[in-house]
Amino acid sequence: MKIAHLSDLHLGKRLKEYSLIEDQKYILRQIIDILKQEKVTTVLLAGDIYDTGNPSSEAVALLSMFLLELKNLDIHVMMIAGNHDNGTRLSYGAEIFADSNIHITGKYTGKLACTTIEDEYGPIHFFSLPYIRPIYVNQYLDETEAVEGYTAAVKHALQ
After folding, report:
1. Cα 126 from Cα 24, distance rounded (Å)
2. What is the pLDDT of residue 124?
3. How many structural domains compose the chain?
4. CB-based contacts of 14, cutoff 8 Å, min separation 6
5. How does residue 143 score in pLDDT terms, banded at 50, 70 and 90?
6. Which of 2, 32, 95, 115 has the least C-beta neighbours within 10 A?
């Protein structure tokens, strides 16, 4: 299995009044070419997919185009929300996308999401942890178990 790791795409980013969408479109096409050339089978999209929790329609369309191309190449995708993403919005349709091997973890649900992919050497388990804050973890704990700080939140989620 060949894995590519991408993060911090920040789709929809603007520099003052200048939209970077066309530049981002160009870069994503270059990435697709590299994935084809390298025969990548799995892509990890590790957070900050969008530049804001309320992405523009152009940014959403760009991600859609990119994911469709990955699906057409039969590339498995694991995508998690970062601190710039709205986890609920990012994971819209996640159950439907999973049928196309696009696995989205937008919000922490009290446990790590696990996706298993088999290759010629056997199963590989991918555990997805989106960006979390202590409040995201504490909603699944009683008051005596509550965690303080980001490190403690991540540590608890990984346990």
Report:
1. 27
2. 94
3. 2
4. 20, 51
5. confident
6. 95
Catalytic residue ranges: 84
Return the HEC string of 109-122: CCCCEEEEEEECCE
- Please, which pLDDT band fits residue 159 given cuts at 50, 70 and 90? confident
Q: Domain containing 78 — which CATH number? A: 3.60.21.10
State pTM to two decimals: 0.89
Question: Are residue 44 and residue 114 in the same domain, yes or no?
Answer: yes
Distance CA 97, CA 125 (A): 18
pLDDT in tens, 53-77: 999 999 999 999 999 999 999 999 9
